[in-house]
Write a structure and sequence with these properties.
This protein is of the alpha+beta class and 205 residues long. The chain has three helices and 14 strands.
Length: 205
């Protein structure tokens, strides 16, 4: 009696009456026989079937995943991105606040800089930027997308970086793309972040 590649043997007194496909993600298993306890693993569900003598029981071996509200998840991603900026801007330790949004194995891909893998390496990059005279950065997400599974997505947007240049304060405008992964508690964390400028720095106005 094969179930998703796993062969299981029912008790000898049990007769197998059929595995019926009833649409995407659904299978019904019909059993008939004497009393026994039988465990079926199928997808993320586990069922224990107790079949009494001379009874027929139909059980759901696999139920479809609940429908994901992708519009709500997109809104949640945009909110997470904006909250990230708020926490960063308000913190007395902005590098800590920036890194806190990353997964432990997250990646930062800054322009004209080597890839930074992991929180410690990312913290080093942001600390270096923060040490530059007159440095500040703001960003704003303008779009978000979430995959059909509801657990991966990205935001994209624009940023403005300011700092002191050799001839006075300068501004650098650019764009970014951030990839997010949804956690078991429902929050979103950054798995990768990259940004680059739109052109040469310009004098601050």
């Amino acid at each position: 009696m094969p179930i998703r590649g796993r062969t299981v043997q029912p008790p000898e007194a049990l007769s197998y009456r059929g595995l019926v496909h009833c649409g995407p993600g659904r299978q019904y298993l019909t059993l008939e026989g004497t009393s026994f306890i039988y465990v079926i693993n199928e997808g993320i569900m586990r069922f224990a079937a107790v079949v009494s003598s001379l009874t027929v029981l139909t059980i759901v071996a696999c139920s479809p995943q609940p429908e994901i509200d992708l519009d709500a998840e997109r809104d949640a991603l945009l909110s997470a991105d904006r909250s990230w900026l708020d926490a960063y801007s308000a913190s007395d330790n902005p590098a800590d606040a920036f890194v806190a949004q990353f997964l432990d194995d997250g990646t930062l891909l800054p322009p004209d800089f080597p890839l930074a893998q992991g929180k410690e390496a990312i913290h080093t990059v942001i600390t270096g930027l923060e040490a530059m005279p007159g440095f500040s950065i703001t960003w704003s997400p303008d779009a978000a997308e979430v995959g059909g599974g509801g657990d991966m997505g990205f935001t994209r947007g624009s940023y403005e970086m300011k700092m002191d240049g050799p001839e006075g304060p300068i501004s650098i405008e650019g764009k970014y793309l951030t990839i997010w992964r949804k956690q078991l508690d429902g929050t979103w964390k950054v798995t990768a972040d990259m940004f680059n400028s739109n052109g040469a720095p310009t004098p601050q106005t």
